[in-house]
Design goal:
This protein is an all-alpha fold. It contains nine helices and no strands. The protein is elongated. The protein has helices at residues 2-27, 51-71, 75-89, 97-129, 134-152, 155-164, 178-217, 225-239, 242-253. α1 (2-27) runs antiparallel to α2 and α3 runs parallel beside α7.
């Protein structure tokens, strides 16, 4: 029940983000060009209405929010590691992209559950009770996300974006804004994902090299080494229970 509430809270928070961003449009309506098509769409907007612009803003945010949210979660690291694993095994399209994305989403949901619960308790519940405003709920919801990203963002990446933003060095990382923390976190996740992927390649490269050396030494020039090495790599991965080891290591890297 608690996880279901936190999941609903995350969905409602996305709606809060949409409404909060578009709030100035209807809080201070201004004359805007009518984007409706007279004669084609019934019930077109009245002259001077800003409703078409509100719809444009909301649709744009709905398009961007999934990419933004996925970039601020462990999804990037997980997906990069899984793609590296598939390339190292040499299976090309197995598991499929849909399978890897689904697995990454499920693990991301598992890792972000405490953050979602904190956002639900600190922002959504007071907003439902009418104790805080929508903008205050938005400010409160940013705090757990920023704390999570700061935990895994490298100091080197934070310093880079502080320098690029021409901002003074803060007294503590918690004083950094999301403009600095979000790209630094994404850059750190890319670095860690590639580092883990490179480590995954090493044992499988050894198998490829040994297989190529053996087939060449016995004169099997017409047989590509990959035909022999690929089953051997899959067999090794299955014998050592590779999925359990990999996902266990990935989950512990976030603890």
């Amino acid at each position: 029940m608690r996880s279901r509430r936190s999941s609903i809270g995350l969905l409602r928070l996305l709606l809060v983000l949409l409404v909060a961003t578009a709030a100035p449009l209807w809080a201070h309506p201004r004359a805007a060009p009518d984007l409706s098509l007279p004669g084609l769409l019934p019930g077109g907007s009245a002259p001077g209405s800003s409703a078409p612009w509100n719809i444009v803003v909301l649709l744009t945010l709905l398009t961007l929010i999934p990419a933004i949210v996925l970039s601020m979660t462990p999804f990037v690291r997980l997906l990069i590691v899984f793609h590296f694993l598939r390339q190292a095994l040499g299976t090309q399209t197995t598991p499929s992209n849909q399978t890897l994305i689904g697995l990454s989403l499920i693990l991301t949901f598992f890792l972000m559950q405490p953050v979602g619960a904190a956002i639900y308790n600190d922002a959504v519940v007071p907003l439902d009770a009418g104790h805080i405003t929508m903008m205050a709920a938005l400010d409160r919801s940013i705090v757990p996300m920023r704390h999570f990203m700061l935990k895994y963002a490298r100091e080197k990446d934070l310093a880079l974006f502080v320098e690029l933003a021409h901002e003074p060095r803060p007294a503590r990382p918690e004083d950094l804004g999301m403009r600095i923390v979000a790209p630094a976190y994404l850059l750190s996740e890319l670095q860690v994902g590639f580092r883990i992927g490179a480590a995954l390649f090493l044992p499988f490269i050894v198998i490829d090299l040994v297989t190529a050396a053996i087939t060449t030494s016995i004169g099997m020039m017409q047989l590509p080494p990959v035909i022999i090495s690929t089953p051997l790599k899959i067999l090794l991965f299955v014998v050592v229970d590779g999925w359990n080891l990999l996902i266990g290591s990935l989950m512990r890297s976030f603890s």
